[in-house]
Amino acid sequence: MTRQFHKMHGLGNDFVVFDARAEPLTVTPALARALGDRKTGVGFDQLIVLTPSPAADLRMDIWNADGGMAEACGNASRCVVALTGAQTIETEGGVIEGAAIGAEVEVAMGEPRFDWNQIPLADAMDTRPLPLAWDELASPDAVNVGNPHLCFFVQDSDAIPLEKLGPQIEHDPAFPERINVNVASVEPDGSLKLRTWERGAGLTLACGTGACATGVAAIRRRLATSPVTVRTHGGNLMISWAPGEPVRMRGAATHVFTGTIDLDSLPA
Ligand SMILES: N[C@@H](CCC[C@H](N)C(=O)O)C(=O)O
């Protein structure tokens, strides 16, 4: 079965998007992994499947490159708004609102959650900060913005061996649903420099929900004021938040090409 797909990215965090609103598409973990393989498939950080929704303009299901699923994806949300013109998107993590603003897209990702069982953590404990450490990474804030994040504030985020510590923390038994790992440093101009180890995808050039969670954590810690610029290796995002409100993110959404693929040529 040959299907059309869109290759898109938000600041280098890249996606394959299938619009399955008119023609259903069954995705399995094996198919997601095969499509995500950068040598033999199409390659992506996340696979996005759009279907009809009774609660919003459309529904977006998110598959990580490892074949697991995620409840939210900030950069893909902006891409889906840009691709379809949707103003509301149902995800497993909640309904996202979005709108084009000039050449960029702004999305409201919902209200962040901070309780230990909302992250979720395996055991009850403070989440601001979490009394845990992994080598030089200690005392992160835990924030759920639809999906689970840890946010560490460090002197220089580029100096942290995230390729070593990221997988260790992602798979720590403290996090029953695993976790996304963000390391950020506060820059002299008040912006945040961010790197993210993504659950199920590893190091990515940018993580939209990571920027939201880290912006929120920095504002709560009074390390930053809203709106705050979050600088990733793929580019900048503007994050706005106040307690009791949804976290908003503004940034680029890029369509790279439209292609077709014979799904029968890949493992089911
Ligand atoms: N790239 C994303 C986040 C994708 C999901 C994440 N890896 C998870 O498993 O929660 C973003 O832009 O937010």
TrEMBL record:
EC id: 5.1.1.7
Protein keywords: Amino-acid biosynthesis, Cytoplasm, Isomerase, Lysine biosynthesis
Main location: cytoplasm
Site (Could be important to modulate the pK values of the two catalytic cysteine residues) location in chain: 149, 198
GO molecular function: diaminopimelate epimerase activity
Pathway(s) this gene product operates in, as recorded in its UniProt entry: Amino-acid biosynthesis; L-lysine biosynthesis via DAP pathway; DL-2,6-diaminopimelate from LL-2,6-diaminopimelate: step 1/1
SUPFAM superfamilies noted in UniProt: Diaminopimelate epimerase-like
Active site feature: 73, 73 (proton donor), 207 (proton acceptor)
Enzymatic class: isomerase
Compartment list: Cytoplasm
Keyword Glycoprotein among UniProt keywords: no
Catalytic activity: (2S,6S)-2,6-diaminopimelate = meso-2,6-diaminopimelate
One cellular component (GO) term of this entry: cytosol
GO BP annotations, alphabetical order: lysine biosynthetic process via diaminopimelate
Positions contributing to substrate binding: 13, 46, 64, 74-75, 147, 180, 198-199, 208-209
Record text on subunit structure and interactions: Homodimer.
Annotated function: Catalyzes the stereoinversion of LL-2,6-diaminopimelate (L,L-DAP) to meso-diaminopimelate (meso-DAP), a precursor of L-lysine and an essential component of the bacterial peptidoglycan.
Assigned protein family: Belongs to the diaminopimelate epimerase family.
NCBIfam families: DapF
Protein name (Swiss-Prot/TrEMBL): Diaminopimelate epimerase
Organism: Sphingomonas rhizophila
